[in-house]
Hints:
The complex is a heterodimer of chains A (about 675) and B (about 350). Chain A has 5 domains: about 70 residues, Phenylalanyl-tRNA Synthetase, Chain B, domain 1; about 200 residues, Phenylalanyl-tRNA Synthetase, Chain B, domain 3 (3-Layer(bba) Sandwich), CATH 3.50.40; about 70 residues, Phenylalanyl-tRNA Synthetase, Chain B, domain 1; about 200 residues, BirA Bifunctional Protein, domain 2 (2-Layer Sandwich); about 90 residues, Ferrodoxin-fold anticodon-binding domain (Alpha-Beta Plaits, 2-Layer Sandwich). Helix content of chain A is about 30%, strand content about 30%. Chain A contains 20 helices and 32 strands. Chain A has a 7-stranded mixed beta sheet with strand order 20-23-24-28-27-26-25, sandwiched between helices. In chain A, strands 4, 6, 7, 14, 15 and 16 form a 6-stranded mixed beta sheet that branches. In chain A, helix 19 packs across helix 20. Chain A is elongated, with a radius of gyration of 40 Å. The relative contact order of chain A is 0.07. By secondary structure, chain B is of the alpha+beta class. Chain B is built from 11 helices and 9 strands. In chain B, the strands form 2 sheets. A 7-stranded mixed beta sheet of chain B has the order 1-4-5-9-8-7-6, sandwiched between helices. In chain B, strands 2-3 form a two-stranded antiparallel sheet. In chain B, strand 6 and strand 7 form a beta hairpin. In chain B, helix 1 packs parallel to helix 4 and helix 5 crosses helix 10. Chain B is elongated and about 125 Å long. Chains A and B meet through helix 2, helix 8, helix 11, helix 13 and helix 14 of A and helix 5, strand 1, strand 4, strand 5 and helix 8 of B.
Amino acid sequence: MLFSYNWLQDYVKGKLPKPEKLAELLTIHTFEAEEVKKKGTDWVLDINVRPNRASDCFSHLGIAREIAVITNSKFQIPSSKPKEDKELKVKDFVNIEIRDKNTCPRYTARVFTDVKVGPSPKYIQERLEACGVRPINNIVDIANYVMLETGQPLHAFDLQKLKDKKIVVRFAKKGEKIVTLDNQKFNLDKEILVIADSKDPVGIAGIKGGKLPEIDKKTKIVVLEGANFERKTIRRGSKSLKLRTDASWRFEHGISADLTEFAINRAAFLIQKGASAKVAKGLIDFYPLKVGPRRIRLVLDYVERLLGVKISKREILRILKSLEFKILKDETEHLIVEVPSFRLDVSLPEDLIEEIGRITDFNKIPAIFPKASLIPPKRNENIFWEEKVGDILKTAGFTEVYNYSFIGEGTPDKFSFDKENLLELENPLSRKYKYLRPSLFPNLLKNVRENFKFFDELKIFELGKVYRKSNVKSKELSVEEKRMLTGIIARKEKKEDGLSEIKGITDLLLEKLGLADIWYDIFEPTPEEKGDFWHPKKCGEIKVGEKEIGFFGETRDFEIKGQVLAFEFDFEKLQKLACEEQEFKPVSPYPAAVRDLAVLVPREVKVAEVLNKVNEAGGDLVQDVDLFDLYEGEEIPGGKKNLAFHIVYQAEDRTLKSEEIEKIHQKIIETLEKNPDWEVRK
Amino acid sequence: MVKNELKSIKILAQKEIEKAKNLKELNRVFKKYLGKKGKLSLILGSLKELPLEERKKIGKKANELKNVLEGKFDKKIQEIRKQAKKGIGKKEWVDVTIPGKKIALGHLHPLTLIKREVCQIFQQMGFEVVEGPEIETEWYNFDALNIPKDHPARDEWDTLWLRQNKLLLRTHTSPVQIRYMEKHKPPLRIIALGKVFRHEATDASHEMQFYQVEGLMVGKEISVANFKAVIQEFFGKFFKKPIKVRLSPDYFSFTEPSFDISITCVVCGGKGCSVCKRTGWLEMMGAGTVHPSVFKNSGLDPKNWQGFAFGMGLDRLAMMKYKINDIRLFHSGDLRFLKQF
C-alpha cells in the first residue's frame, strides 16, 4: 500500500526521520517498506502491510502511530469535531433499517445540507494522487481521504436520489441487478449484501457504490455512510462477483466496529470545511452489540523464555503503553493487558510478545544454541535409498532430470492410461497440466525429443512420485502416491546389443542394492496395466520371487527416430527388498582354468535355461559362466541359434587338475545333450 | 712400486670416467677401480702386508685417491643424468594442452545436490529428515495451520485443487509439522524437504512446482535466540562463509511471533549490488515461533511446549549458490543445463 510521507508527518510531533531512514526503521520494526519514491515535494513509501494488521495499518494514522512508537515521538490525532447545525436534525432526513445485525454489526451515518460539490482542496487531491487514488469531487475525495487516513471505508449518497429517503441494509433478492459507479452491471443473488432504498439496491455493501445515488454537481443533500460489515459476507460477495475494491479488501480482512464513529466525524469536519456544507445534528448509529475489549494475561517470565532474551519489565510496560495497550493490573509475575479495539490481530500472550520483540528489535536477540540431547537423528530410509540409487545411476552415466508432476489433456490416450484412475485437477494452469502423472514415461520421452535437438545419445533417469486413485478403502486420502524410478537410454543410431545394455544397467543397479534372487520373465501385459509403453516382444519383467518389481526393454514406437531403451521400477518395492549387508568372499589363491563351450539350441530357448543347466551340472567348481557370443544366421540350421560360453573353473582349496576339469566339462555337455533338440558343438 | 701403481690408476681412472657415455659404462669403470675386486680396493686390501712406515704413507695416498675418484664419479653421474634428460625432451615431447578424453559420468540434478547438502547440515545439528504426502487435505494444508476457510490469509497461497474429494496439492511443506507432531512427542527437531505446488503463472522467478525445506524444533524452552543460532549456523555452512542473519517482523498464521529472514548478500557481502537490489540483504525464508493453535491442532498442549519453525525455497538456495537466473531451468530436462552439475 502507498503512503504519503508528508501526510504521515501530520500525525507525528517532531520531524520525521528522512524517508529512506524511515523506510529502514519500518522494515526493522513493523513492515517491509519496499520502495521510496519522490513525488513533487512529497515522498511515497510503498509499505507491505501484512494482512493481520489490516485493522489498523491500512491507514496513515495506523502507520503514523507505529512511527511515533519506533521513533519515541508523540502521536497526534487530527480533529474530528464538526460543528453541528442545531436547526437540522439527522433523523428528519433519512430513515435507516438494518435487517441483520450479524452481517452489519454497525451502521453510522451523517447528513449534510447546502453542499457545494466542486473540486476538493489541493492538498487532499495531491495526497490522494500520491496514494494512487484519482480525485473526483470534494465529497467523494474526502470520503476516500478519510478511508486512507483512518482505514474506514465511507460512502456518500445523494439523498434526493434515494426513494422514500430510505436506506435498507439487506441481502439482494434473486434477479435484482445493479449498475455500479463505474458503469459495470452485476446480477445479484441472495448471498450478496446490498444497500437499498425503499425499492432497489443502490450499492453493494462494503464493496462498491451504485450509479443511482451518485454525487454530482447538482447534489445538495448528502448522506454519508460509515458502516461495519462482517468479513465473510464481504469476502464471499466479492469473490462471487469477482469484484475487489479497496473497501472490500479492508472489510474482508476485518476492521473494528468502533472505528466508524471517529471516521465519519472526521469526514464531517472536512466536508464542512471543504464543501462549505451544514452538518445536521446527530449521528445515526445502529450498534446493537458493542464488543467489549479483550484482555490478556501476560506472564513476564514467558516473554524471556520465548524470545530468549531478558527485557526489563519497565521496557515491556513502556512498549505496550506506547502502542495504546492498557495495563489493567501490574503484578510482579504477570500483567493483565487490555487490547485497544483497533488491534483485531492481538488476542494471545504470544501476540503481545511479538509486539515487545519487534519494537525492541528482534535483531537485538542474541544467537544462542539450544540445549538439546546429543542423540544423532534417525536415518530416513527413503532418502538413504534414493541417494544410493542416484549415485549408482550417476556412476553408470545417467543424468537425473526433474519433470513436472503433470501430464496434458491428450497424454492419457497416447499412452492408453485408464482415465478412470487418473487424478484430474479442478483448476489446472493450462490443458498441458490437466492430470497428475500416473507414470514418469510421458515427460521423460518429452525430454528425449527436446534433447535430440542437441545430442545424438542420452541417458537420463527420474526418481519421483506418480499419482492415481486408490482402490484401498482404508487409505486416508483415497489417492495413492508412490515413487517410481525410470531410466532411459536413447540414441539416434540403433544399436544391436541395446537390450543387453539396458539389462546390464538393471543388473548393476540390483546388484548394488543387494537384491538377491532376481530373475527376468517374459513380459505379459496384465489387464489393469497402467499404460502402454513397451515393445510387445523386446521387453521383460524383472522379478524377485513371485513379485514383479519392474520392467526393462525397448519402448514401443513413440515416433522418436532411433532407439529408446528403458527400465522402470516400483521404487517402493525396490527399497523394501534392498539390503545394505555385504559379505566379503575370499579370493582363491589357486589358478582358474577357462574352457569354452558352444551349444546349438532352438531359437525360443531362453539363455537362462541353458545357464541353469550349466551351473547345475558344473556345481561349486564352476566359478563363472559368461555368454560371449550369440549367433543366429546363415550358417546355422533353420530355427536354431548358437550360444558360446566361457566357463571358468576354479577351486578354493587346490589347483584343479586338468583331468578333473575335463570330467566336469564332460558332465555339463552330457547334461545339455540330454535334451534332444540341443547340440553341443565339438 | 705401489706408489707408481697408484699414479697410473689415478690417470687411467680419470680418463675412463671422463670417457664414459652412460651410466652403464660408468658403472663398469667404477667396478674396475672401486668395486670389491677393483684395482684400488685390492691395493687398500693388501696394505696390511706392508711394513708399518710404508703402510701409513701408502694408505694415506690410496685413501686420498679413493676420495678423489668417488668425487669424480658423483660429478659424472650428475652430468650423464642431466644429459639424458635433455635428450628425452626432444624425442618424447607431448602437447599437454591436448584436451583430456571425456569420461562419461552422469550428473545429479542441482536440486538433488542442494537437498543433500541441506539435509547434511541439519542432520549434523541433530535434525531428523521426515516427509509427507504431496496430495493433502484442506485440514493439514490450511485449517490445522491456523488458516481458516473464508479467511483472506488463504489468498497468500494460490492453490491447485483436485477434482477428487476436495483434495489439493500442498502449497507448502508445513503440513508435515502437524503430521509429525500428531505422532511424536516433543522434544523434537525435524526438517522436511519436498515438492510443493502453486496455481501460479510461470516466469523466470515463479514456478507452479518447486521445492521447500521446512524446519521445526520443539522443546520446553526453545526460543527465538535458539532459532537465530541454528539458522545462522546453517547459512554459514551452506554458503561457506560467515553470514549475518536479519529478522524483520512478518506475518504467518502458523507462527507467532513471525519473522522474515534475510541474510547478508552472498554476492556483495552486504555492500549493495544488483542481486540484493542495493539493500545488502537477501530475503531467504519465513520463520517464527510455533503458534499455540498449531500445537493444539497437533494434539499437544501449548502450555507445555514451545519452539520455532521455518520454511524456505530450495530452488532459491540453488539459484543463489549456482547463480542460476531462471527457475524454469530446473524442470526443463535440458541436458545442456543438467550436465553442468
